[in-house]
């Protein structure tokens, strides 16, 4: 039997055309997308399609749209061998990270792709991205999908989604995965490095076990966790940041978490007002995670004097997580953990391969 692939269209450039009057890019009927790629019929799989009723630019993604996407996959999980999500590239790294946490113990691929040029454009990158993504999603070995994680495929590379960031607004090579190698490279051959693929870890299952106590030890199934908390903020440090700005952010009513983008290996101003503001915020129960503004490398609190105090006051380390993943993971764990100790434990551990331990 041929692998069954569900192609989900959420919106984005890949399915856009120019409005003849304003020349602005807007979404068009998904059925037309398939008309533009008759080559899809040559693929050795059965493709079904489904679309958001109103496709959106990915800048309009929010928790509700993540959930809608999650639902579309979850409701049809048993009917397909793989899922391909067409999504705008702007927030694809955030959605990919969120999906990776939403689907615990994933047994099938969910691969997001999009394009920098619309499918109808003569020089479009959409066709290669879409065709290769479908091929990757339909790779089966010994009766089960080879890829069992959430990925992004863009411009000849398959990445673990929760390791990616969008780094270019106009190059076809729009994504990078600074701290984890590509899982597959598409050249003359489609080379999947099976050693790099996600196999699940003790911590993923420990978390599953703590949260699915009703199941016997060997029966942890794919588990769908769609509820995220968005009372969070990303605070990016910059030279000259004032106490007024930091305090205003820390005093946002109902705030539950801050992703603090620090310098280098996790460094922040050592001025007393800053450390006091962080401590006050932690003391009132707001979780703060430290991620680096650098595209590559990791937070290592305590390495420099300027991060010793952050460690001492109980800040959680984002290690080599991207900001996009740290945000999604925080939104996820805020809902699925109850104590700071639990939050810190799971945040600093790899649940879906998002962090190097
Ligand atoms: N603004 C578009 C979006 O993210 C860009 C793209 O599709 O690549 O939806």
Automatic annotation (TrEMBL):
The active site is at residue 13. Keywords: Hydrolase. Pfam families: Asparaginase, Asparaginase_C. Residues 231-347 form the Asparaginase/glutaminase C-terminal domain. This is asparaginase. PANTHER family: 60 KDA LYSOPHOSPHOLIPASE (PTHR11707:SF28), L-ASPARAGINASE (PTHR11707). The keyword NADP does not apply. The keyword Glycoprotein does not apply. InterPro entries: AsnA_fam, Asp/glu_Ase-like_sf, Asparaginase/glutaminase-like, Asparaginase/glutaminase_AS1, Asparaginase_C, L-asparaginase_C, L-asparaginase_I, L-asparaginase_N. SUPFAM superfamilies: Glutaminase/Asparaginase. GO terms for molecular function: asparaginase activity. One of its GO terms (biological process) is aspartate family amino acid metabolic process. Its EC number is 3.5.1.1. It is an enzyme of class 3 (hydrolase). Residues 4-195 form the L-asparaginase N-terminal domain. Belongs to the asparaginase 1 family. Coiled coil: none annotated.
């Amino acid at each position: 039997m041929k692998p069954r692939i569900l192609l989900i269209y959420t919106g984005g450039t890949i399915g856009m055309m120019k409005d003849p009057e304003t020349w602005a890019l807007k979404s068009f009927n998904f059925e037309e997308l398939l008309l533009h790629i008759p080559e899809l019929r040559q693929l050795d799989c059965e493709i079904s399609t489904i679309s958001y009723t109103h496709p959106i630019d990915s800048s309009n993604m929010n928790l509700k749209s993540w959930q809608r996407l999650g639902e579309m996959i979850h409701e049809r999980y048993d009917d397909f061998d793989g899922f391909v999500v067409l999504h705008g590239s702007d927030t694809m790294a955030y959605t990919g990270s969120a999906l990776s946490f939403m689907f615990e113990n994933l047994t099938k691929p969910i691969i997001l792709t999009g394009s920098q040029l619309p499918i109808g454009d003569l020089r479009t990158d959409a066709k290669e991205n879409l065709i290769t993504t479908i091929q990757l999603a339909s790779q089966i070995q010994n009766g089960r999908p080879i890829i069992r994680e959430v990925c992004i495929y863009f411009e000849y590379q398959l990445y673990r989604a929760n390791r990616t960031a969008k780094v270019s607004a106009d190059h076809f090579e729009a994504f990078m995965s600074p701290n984890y190698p590509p899982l597959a490279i598409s050249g003359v051959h489609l080379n999947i490095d099976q050693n790099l693929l996600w196999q699940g870890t003790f911590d993923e299952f420990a978390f599953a076990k703590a949260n699915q106590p009703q199941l016997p030890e060997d029966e942890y199934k794919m588990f769908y966790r769609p509820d995220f908390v968005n009372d969070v903020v990303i605070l990016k440090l910059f030279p000259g940041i004032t106490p007024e700005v930091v305090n205003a952010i820390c005093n946002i009513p109902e705030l539950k978490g801050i992703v603090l983008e620090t310098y280098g290996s996790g460094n922040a101003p050592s001025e007393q007002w800053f450390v006091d503001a962080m401590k006050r915020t932690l003391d009132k129960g707001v979780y703060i995670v430290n991620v680096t503004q650098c595209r590559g490398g990791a937070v290592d609190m305590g390495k420099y004097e300027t991060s010793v105090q952050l460690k001492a006051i109980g800040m959680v380390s984002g290690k080599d997580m991207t900001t996009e993943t740290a945000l999604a993971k925080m939104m996820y764990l805020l809902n699925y953990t109850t104590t700071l100790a639990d939050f810190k434990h799971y945040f600093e551990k790899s649940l879906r391969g998002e962090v190097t331990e």
